[in-house]
Specification:
The complex is a heterodimer. Chain A has a domain at about 90-230: Sulfite Oxidase, Chain A, domain 2. Chain A contains 4 helices and 10 strands, in the order H-E-E-H-E-E-H-E-E-H-E-E-E-E. Chain A has helices at about 35-70, 120-125, 150-160, 185; strands spanning about 105-110, 115-120, 130-135, 140-150, 165-170, 180, 190-195, 200, 210-215, 225-230. The longest helix of chain A has about 35 residues, at about 35-70. Chain B has a two-stranded antiparallel sheet. The radius of gyration of chain B is 20 Å and the shape is elongated. In chain B, about 75% of the residues lie in helices and about 5% in strands. Chain B has a single domain, classed as Transmembrane di-heme cytochromes, Chain C (Fumarate Reductase Cytochrome B subunit, Up-down Bundle), CATH 1.20.950. The longest helix of chain B has about 30 residues, at about 155-185. Classes of the chains: A alpha+beta, B mainly alpha. The interface between A and B is large, with 66 and 73 residues.
Chain lengths: ~260, ~220
Amino acid sequence: MTSTGRSGPPILGGAGGAKADDVDLAEADGQGAPIGRRIVLGMLGLGVAGVLVGDKVQAGIERALRPLSQNDPTGLTSFVPTSGRFRIYSVTAHMPDRSTADWRLGVDGMVATPLDLSYAALLDLPQTDVTHDFQCVTGWRVPDVPWTGVKLADLLDEAGVQDGATHVRLHSFDGAYTESLTLEQAHRDDVLVAHRMLGAPVTREHGGPVRLFVAPMYGYKSLKWLERIEVVDTLVPGYWEERGYDVDAWVGQSNGRSDEPTA
Amino acid sequence: MSAVTLGGGVAGAGSPGDATIARFSAAERALHWAVVVVLGTCALTGLVLYVGPLSAVVGRRTLVRDVHVVAGLATPVPFVLAYAGRWRAALRRDVRRLARWSSSDRRWLLSRGRCETAEVGKFNAGQKANAAFIAGVVPLMVVTGSIMRWYKPFPLPWRTGATFVHDWTAIGTWIVVAGHVLFALSRPPALRSMVTGRMSRAYAEDHHPRWAEATAEREGG
């Protein structure tokens, strides 16, 4: 007698009950209802539904959890997938690490007076507070994130942009990441060189000590670990823009997405 | 190939306390431990990708992501190989046992293992639930992970939806597998049977009486 030759897909328990001569399966667990198959098919059904409507379910859970996740001293809710959490992305081998003492910010290129600012000098400039949702192009959104920093426009005005300049190019001290903005975009009141977010100094994971925050655009424009602002007269697409994302990254009007605008 | 050599086996000739029953074939054990390796790789790299402070310590996000994707795509491979040859016979039998639930299995699960032990066969309801869950997790994670990694051909909300499913399924899998490991560590004869292929007859009579009984009947002729 061989064990093959039964009908039905064995992985789902599709075969009928044990044959009378099959002493090996003549036990309680060789027969009965195909619950195993129901569990597997149920999971797959839920999974398909989750892929199709998960973005709406997720937004609903996020709204429901918002009071909880925004007053959570433990930070534990940030590990719940749908609590409006940041996901930490970086593009280089090692996540960059720079202390506030070692950090400098250069503003150069087509400017009248190049700047070289320390962290303390940045904090001495006029400060702006804004609160906006943070929307990632991969789909997650963090509601009502408070930011503090210096308007990028103020730094550009301080350095004095020369005639003929059209764009700024932003450089990260991770050594790889860059971003681009038109001068018009860079002069918006909600584009900050930010040193505080979520009520505390910007952490290393979030791009500290200083990062960019571009309120109306997808998260990849808000370059982390900022160290240099270069004024230029050509568009140089940024890191992700070279890899297929839109240069003008307005939330809800780019990258084929229809998210609610953030600013 | 006879049924006796597949599921039954020979009890030790010495004292009853030393006697063992064959429980898992070499192919079944190879499948189990191969799944441990690929799923474990997915779990650890996934944790690094998901938990921000851990990402900061480990770095090399692109490498970690690539390892995660390759390990993820490899999760069906051990199952395919286990079914690819003559060695699948014992596995097919055990899958049939795992797939079918008797009414006493349900009672056993609802009482969290405290009653109906007398009816338990080769696998209890917890083991059956674990096996079915993992069988569901593998295709679910491969498909949603592939949509996350290669999102271009799909409608954009699917990317968010796939992430949603992938994240929650991962958390569920961590919990289920943690339970599986804790149960295994607290029941050494069961864990040993997945290593050596054999289970002590005394333990089988206590925890899998219907299976021990059927095995004894077979041996008794």
